[in-house]
Amino acid sequence: MALTVGTIAPDFTLRSLSTGELEDRTLSSHRGQSNVVLLFFPAAFTGVCTQEMCDVTNGLGAFGDADAVVYGISGDTAFAQAAWAEQNGIKVSLLSDYSKKTSQAYDVVLPDLAGHGPAAKRAAFVVDKQGVIRYAEETPTPVDLPNFDAVRAALAELG
User: Fold this and answer.
1) DSSP readout, 96-118?
2) What is the mean pLDDT of the chain?
3) What is the pTM of this model?
4) Which residues partner with 64 through β-bridges?
């Protein structure tokens, strides 16, 4: 079961290729500055994951209005994520959890994705400026999307 509300969110350092160069992104860099939405998803270049990240891209303004940074996290390489984002117009910052250590820390590892081995489960977390999880959801199956109305409501409660 994924981490629960009230838990301190595990810090991480993950790679991103969103600016054309590999960069390290850490959760702790947002402490005291912004809320963070973490969206774990199984794999780039798949239908439901593409739908989710495109839908989130189209609604990014709502998250920014809530003083929140949004990260999509999967076990794909940063290179694959960047190609996928370019191909589909995804503007969400994507973070590579290639080692699956962050997915393990949040307890959202799917043991086997269609015979390809471990992957991230689909899950959503809202982390406040103090690093505390204020919303946590693990979807029942990889094809179910998170409840984005509930994510936005959790952000609204943070002021």
Assistant:
1) E-TT-HHHHHTT-EES-STTS--
2) 92
3) 0.94
4) none
